[in-house]
């Protein structure tokens, strides 16, 4: 069977899982006590770091599911997102507003990337 | 690294992203002011058009995540969905009720297909 | 084009879809009238059975999206989940709280696995 490589494995989840050149990972901001804009910058920086760890970069995103618990955060998120996405390399993207499992987080991103 | 082909690239998202024979795309109805049933027919027609653009058709769906903001729309959506899915080729499917990022839309579909 | 293998095909969905060594499936507990803990054990056992059917096992999970409609269920779910996940093989994982399409269900899991 195909090889599965796991990064940052804990009892509950792995930080990233790679199989057949596709990486699956989920990011929440490191600091859930920061304000929304800081959290949005943070989580996108974390994606950069994760992709670098996996041998890719932000031009390699395939799909991003955005969970944004507060609907009023959408405009601020989009502004930071638009500045971060490399021109010509935007992923497929969906966004819903739903409460997250972990308190305080203003965003959770489910990412599929080619690495 | 594997090739990534993007269709309909904007600053914020791509309409569809293809990598290693797998297509990732998200559809909302073209007209968020239409009634629910019209939106449901519309979004499924858009999937047909997208799959045709990508060299596939509705027998090639792997997984569909359904975001249906109004729980009361489920029966109407299912009736239209059931008539649309080709017999013997139904995808894996999940459905949750959560508010969408964009106002007025009665459905958003996150699609994975083999093309 | 690549081969798509579907298991448990109904008019509305397939129980599992396999393409290029990746399995896509969605599980809700068999008995939505059971208490939450019973439902959580049930749905994880169903994943075991599904993976076995597909020629894999619980070490082959890539990503799991957890829809948990009642936020208060998280601790109980995590306890059962942590005991079930094989050490060193945890998948990527995201969790949101949103109402499910089907009444009574305390959890719905969207699974991607390498088989």
**Biggest sheet of chain A, in brief?**
6 strands, mixed
**Helix/strand order of chain A:** EEEHEHEE
Please state the average pLDDT score of chain A.
97
Instruction: Estimate the global geometry of chain A from the Cα principal axes.
Output: globular
The residue ranges of chain A in which pLDDT falls below 50 over 5 or more consecutive positions are none
Q: Into which percentage range does the β-strand content of chain A fall?
A: 25-35%
Tell me the domain tally of chain A.
1
**CATH homologous superfamily title of chain A:** RutC-like
Q: What is the helix fraction of residues of chain A, given as a range?
A: 25-40%
Most extensive contact:
A-B, 33 and 27 residues
Query: What fold name stands as the CATH topology of chain A?
Result: 60s Ribosomal Protein L30, Chain: A
Please, how many helices of chain A? 2
Radius of gyration of chain A: 14 Å
What spatial order of strands do you see in the largest sheet of chain A?
1-2-3-6-4-5
Number of strands of chain A: 6
Label the structural class of chain A: alpha+beta
Tell me what the CATH architecture of chain A is: 2-Layer Sandwich
């Amino acid at each position: 069977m195909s090889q599965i490589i796991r990064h940052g494995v804990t009892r509950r989840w792995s930080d990233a899982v790679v199989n057949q050149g596709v990486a699956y990972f989920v990011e929440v901001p490191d600091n859930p006590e920061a304000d929304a804009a800081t959290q949005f910058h943070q989580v996108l920086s974390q994606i950069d770091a994760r992709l670098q760890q996996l041998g890719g970069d932000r031009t390699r995103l395939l799909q991003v599911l955005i969970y944004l618990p507060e609907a009023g955060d959408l405009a601020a998120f989009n502004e930071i997102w638009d500045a971060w996405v490399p021109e010509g390399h935007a992923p497929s993207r969906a966004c819903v507003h739903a409460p997250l499992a972990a308190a305080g987080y203003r965003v959770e991103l489910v990412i599929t990337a080619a690495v």
